[in-house]
Amino acid sequence: MKDIVFVSGHKNPDSDSICSAIAYANYLFTIGRYNAVPVRLGEINKETEYILKRFHTEIPVLLKTVKQTVEDLEYDKVTVFSKELTLKTAWSLMKQQNLKSAPVLDDHSQLLGLLSTSNIIEGYMDQWDSQILKEANTPIENVIDTLDASILYLDKQLKTIKGEIHIAAMTGEEASKRVHENDVVIVGGDRDEAIEHLMNKKISLIILTGSLSISKELLQRCADAHMSVISTPFNTFMASQQIIQAVPVEYVMQKGGLTTFSTDDTVDYVKEVMSETRYRSYPVIDFMGRVVGSISRYQVLNGMKKKVIQVDHNERSQAIDGIEEAEILEIIDHHRVADIQTVGPVLFRAEPVGCTATIVAKCYKESGVEIPQDMAGLMLGAIISDTLLFKSPTCTPTDTKIAKELAAIAGVDIQEFGMSMFKAGTSLVGKTVEEIFNQDYKKFTFGDLSAGVAQVNTMDIEGFAPYKKDMLDYMEQVAKDNHMEFTMLLLTDVINATSEVLVAGPRKDYVETAFHVELVDQQASLPGVISRKKQVVPVITEVLTQ
């Protein structure tokens, strides 16, 4: 299908934010507009958890950021090399796949080094001497493979090359003066006499060129002397040239100072590192430390932005981290138009109703899409939550009408469902003051000033008393850390339509002025105040903007 589009509510999500994201993602997927996936930006509260469980719906996946990461890019799933691979094979593979570099792994599939074509070329340009195979700890298998050799006899003690390379181009007696124990000798032509002399020097390997062989008797004597014998189809010149390519890639690869990227590194970080280095490509490693590919500058510059649809908010401070790097496709909301910015035109649907889910339900109806029972239940729960069971001044006749239709589809009694929701959501037992404050908290900015407003619906305001001191201390710290004029917590009794407000921060007087109250021990009663959006934000906006 199409690329994934994330449907996201706001930070510190409430029931409307979560349920509307799920229902709208389902709607978009049903009509085939987007491959929409609902996500959440924080932990769900107990009320939302109750709604989801009642209608057997999974909690959306937590998405922390929409910043691009390496995992989002089309990086190369390249061939990786083992450290024992011969230069000959490595060069051939790199030519076939048009690679400039390739990661080299150790025995545990962890990154050991990086082999590039320049590593191989520089190796040949260096003054490699006759001890190169020894210095590179070259396995005997590499020599056999590189020379396309057949084994006449292979001593089990011979694992790696531990001597110099010689070419027997003189009499056997003279050649024997120049070789030492464990050396390797390339023998060109019919030189049985040379082989007999070399046996006494305890060399480790004889390489016969031109596909030549030796007699069974002489081969047996070689075996008795623990001297391995192989035969290559190459002539002496080619054999002496090709054998150097038996060196394992581990010997020439770049080992230290490797620049790598993890699949969860952000593109911003990758660009910064690439600007300070000049490699053609960089290994990509997953969270287990395994190499999964390589990435180039071109792939970073051509990465696609993540696509996002926002519901129940249009303020940048409430949006997912990295939203400035994403492509916003739609905004569905019932709040004031705030400060969100988009690169191009978007579908922006904002209506003065009490809940975003009301708008989502209208989308189903307008498109002639049948609302599934579980989606109806989720949207009903969101409307009941946001309108406080239709008692909030934000509630409109449209919300009430849509809620009744959804209740019929979901097969629930509105009053019973609503009271069960609030009972599940307002319990403070076992919660910390941090959890209570942040379960429905929003930051508001007014020019150069800012304030934080949290709201908790509870059927037991008096039961909050043991939390008060610790809560005020926490709110003071939030105000200080965020340079706010004040922070306030509304303890709202939705049944009796009243709220208690707790205030902290350097300018508590702003709240007294806004609500015409006097704070006693940083607390005051606000009869009839139950809506943050309509009864709280407007009055503090007026005070702070003046």
Q: Note the total helix count.
A: 20
Query: Judging from the principal axes of the Cα atoms, what is the shape?
Result: elongated
- The helix content, as a percent range, equals 25-40%
Q: Could you describe the largest sheet, including whether it forms a barrel?
A: 6 strands, parallel
Beta-strand content bin: 15-25%
Ends distance: 52 Å
Segments where pLDDT lies below 50 for 5+ residues? Answer: none
Structural class given helices, strands, pairing?
A: alpha/beta
Strand order of the largest sheet: 3-2-1-15-16-17
Report mean pLDDT, rounded to a whole number. Answer: 88
Q: Tally of extended strands?
A: 22
Q: Give Rg in angstroms.
A: 37 Å
Description:
The protein is of the alpha/beta class and 546 residues long. It contains 20 helices and 22 strands. The strands form 5 sheets. A 6-stranded parallel sheet has the order 3-2-1-15-16-17. The protein has a 5-stranded mixed sheet with strand order 7-11-10-9-8. A 5-stranded mixed sheet has the order 18-19-20-21-22. Helix 11 (267-276) links the parallel strand 12 (261-262) and strand 13 (281-285). 42% of the residues are buried.
